[in-house]
Design brief:
With 244 residues, the protein is mostly helical. The protein contains nine helices and no strands. It has one domain. The longest helix has 30 residues.
């Protein structure tokens, strides 16, 4: 992910001449550090598209053989897992990714339907859309949770009304991405359109993640008042109690 997490004092906003680098205000150098820098996501999104692509290739080359597609997906998934481990990704994250491929393959084999390789993807996106929407309603927007974890802030960002509001608005962007995937995947899945599902899976992974990172960053930045020191330095109103 992005740069190393920094501590947070929770003090009042420093004067403009006291801010430098990533700590500068909305009109300063802080623009160089975006959500893409902090959250990354490109490599993971690309990795996630490889097993479905392999499934489609194996399925086609095998004369629409389910076992050909499943075997190709599992083989490529194992290679991706090995590469991720070598480049230093967390073992738990790698295991979850490989487990998702195995479960998708198992569902397809047990049901005998190639389109069911994508059933887990459809369900996970529906669950994610619900989780993100609920997080906003209960004032724990997941974008804030993720960025706060990366920056080592825990829940300090929630004591900054501007950040809490901004993260809530920006989290709707991510909610919309999951809803878009569901809206596209469900008709294709119900129609048994295996190749179309693969195309949609690729098109709505990294390109959509990149768009969501950029748009949610714009929404978040525009939600912060002039002079706010940025994501790394929440301006807390009450250093003890979180906002109600």
């Amino acid at each position: 992910m992005g740069g190393a997490p920094e501590g947070d004092s929770g003090q009042a906003v420093p004067r403009p001449d006291q801010r430098t680098g990533a700590d500068a205000g909305p009109d300063g150098p802080a623009r160089a550090e975006s959500l893409t820098d902090l959250l990354g996501g490109r490599r993971g999104a690309i990795d996630a598209t490889l097993p479905p692509l392999a499934f489609a290739v194996g399925w086609l080359l095998g004369g629409e053989s389910l076992w050909g597609g499943v075997g190709a997906a599992l083989a490529v998934g194992a290679v991706v897992a090995g590469v991720r481990l070598r480049r230093g990704d967390r073992p738990r994250s790698v295991l979850i990714g490989m487990l998702a491929v195995c479960v998708a393959a198992l569902i397809a084999v047990r049901t005998g339907r190639a389109e069911n390789f994508f059933l887990l993807q459809v369900l996970s996106n529906a669950a994610s859309a619900l989780a993100w929407a609920v997080s906003i309603v209960v004032r724990w927007p997941l974008l804030g949770v993720l960025v706060g974890a990366v920056l080592g802030q825990r829940a300090r960002w929630r004591r900054d009304p501007a950040l809490l509001r901004g993260y809530g608005r920006a989290s709707w962007v991510w909610t919309a991405t999951y809803l878009l995937r569901v809206a596209v995947f469900v008709p294709l899945y119900l129609g048994g359109q295996v190749l179309a599902l693969v195309v949609a899976r690729v098109a709505l992974t990294w390109p959509l993640v990149a768009a969501a990172l950029a748009l949610s960053w714009v929404v978040l930045r525009r939600s912060l008042p002039a002079g706010h020191p940025g994501l790394r330095h929440p301006v807390t109103v009450d250093p003890v109690a979180p906002p109600r």
